[in-house]
Each structure stands twice: as C-alpha cells, then as structure tokens.
Amino acid sequence: AQKVTQAQTEISVVEKEDVTLDCVYETRDTTYYLFWYKQPPSGELVFLIRRNSFDEQNEISGRYSWNFQKSTSSFNFTITASQVVDSAVYFCALSESGGGADGLTFGKGTHLIIQP
Amino acid sequence: KAGVTQTPRYLIKTRGQQVTLSCSPISGHRSVSWYQQTPGQGLQFLFEYFSETQRNKGNFPGRFSGRQFSNSRSEMNVSTLELGDSALYLCASSSRIYDTEAFFGQGTRLTVV
After folding, report:
1. Distance (Å, rounded) from C-alpha B104 to C-alpha B107?
2. Are B55 and B49 in contact (CB under 8 A)?
3. Nearest-angstrom CA–CA distance, B44 and A76
4. How far is it, in rounded angstroms, from Cα B27 to Cα B8?
5. How open is the CA angle A52-A57-A58, to the nearest 5 degrees?
6. Nearest 10 degrees: CA dihedral of B39, B43, B81, B6?
7. Which of A48, A72, B17, B70 is deepest in the core (most CB within 10 A)?
8. Is B35 touching A (CB cutoff 8 A)?
9. A32-88 per-position pLDDT tens digit
C-alpha cells in the first residue's frame, strides 16, 4: 500500500527566511510519481511539480526547489526567500498511475505561515 | 481559458438525503478525478473518469457514485447521506490519461446536518 508522510503539521517563519517542507513516501512499485500541490485559502489545489521515480535530478523553479532522494524515500520542497504570498497548505502526493490527478495518495499537508 | 468549475460551491443537506455535485472540466480535457477532503482523513481519492468510463476507484462505499457525460462534464452522487460525508469535494481535470499536470476546481463544501 502507498503512504505519504508529512511530519510537519505547521511551520511558521518570518518573511525572507528559507523553509523546507519534508515528505517521506512508501510504495512497493518501482515506477511511481511524486507531486507537490499548494492549497491557498480559496480551496483549489494548485499543481507545483511532478517527478517520476526514474528521475532523481533536483529541480529548481524560481524560489522553489525540490530534492528527490530514492535512498531515503524523500521528496522535500524548499522555498527560498519566503514571501507572505507563499502562506498556504502544501501537500505531497504519490501515484502509481502517473496520469493527471488519477489515484493520488496525499500526505496530511503542512500549513506554512509566512509572517511579515 | 476557463478553469475547472464546480457547482454548487456550498450545500447543506440532511442525513439520509442524497446529493449530486457537478464538475465541468477545462475545455478539451477528458479526464476528471474526484477527491474528498476532511480534517480527519485529509484528501482521499474517490474515482477517475476518462471518456465516460470509470478507470479507477478509491476505497469508498457504494453510496458514492459518479458518471461522466460525452462533453466530459462529470457528476458525483452520494446517497443516504451521513454526518461523516461532510467535506470539501474537489474535482480535477487533465487533458490526457498520462498528463503531467492536473487542474483542480475550488470544490463544493457539503455540510450534512
């Protein structure tokens, strides 16, 4: 069975600090996909990134970066120079089907609070 | 282009009633997935439809059902509502089965009293 653990329930930092959100996953499949989504107060989930299990390259997109390590089954997300607009709940998710939003197993989420 | 539209946004129902929620995907998208979000269980996958066929289903009782129409719009139905069905129901659309990115709607907040 698949499982995603986000041990940090809530993180609060001051604006401009760097922050890392942890994600640990469990799966028996050798082919799987990992995702990060952001949920602002308006409720919709906003797609941030998808990674497949064969691609361990780290990814950087502006102030966002992701570190995928199969050896520790982790897919951590770092926000550099955080801003108040980054405040939201962030979800890590795992899928064995890989398509769109089909069959995602989500973690419980990390509530990120960026204080001005 | 217009995003994923879910209607209604808010709904209050009584225990034992049934409810139908609607999801209109982004134009051209053929895959629609449904999720239930509650404070206790978090986000849980309900089912996924592609070209009017249910391809995948989560671990929910038979009271939860869905369908997809030829225009890709999808509905989900919950019969014999229970208090525990109170949740935010989210749908997501993507254009192909193995699309990288899915787009979520703002959800329908269902309250069962």
Report:
1. 8
2. yes
3. 21
4. 19
5. 105
6. 110
7. A48
8. yes
9. 999 999 999 888 899 999 888 988 888 888 999 999 999 999 999 999 999 999 999
- CB–CB of A94/A35 below 8 Å? yes
> Any idea how long chain A is?
116
Nearest CA in chain A to B109: A43
> Which structure tokens are listed for B50?
């592609």
Tokens standing for residue B36: 């239930």
Q: What percent of chain A has pLDDT over 70?
A: 98
Residues of B in contact with A103 (CB under 8 A): 33, 45, 48, 56, 58
CA Rg, chain A, in Å?
A: 14
Q: Looking at B1-113, which runs of residues are DSSP E strands?
A: 5-7, 10-13, 19-24, 31-38, 42-50, 53-57, 64-68, 74-78, 87-94, 103-104, 108-112
Instruction: Give Cα separations from B53 to B69, B90, B108 (angstroms).
Output: 9, 19, 23
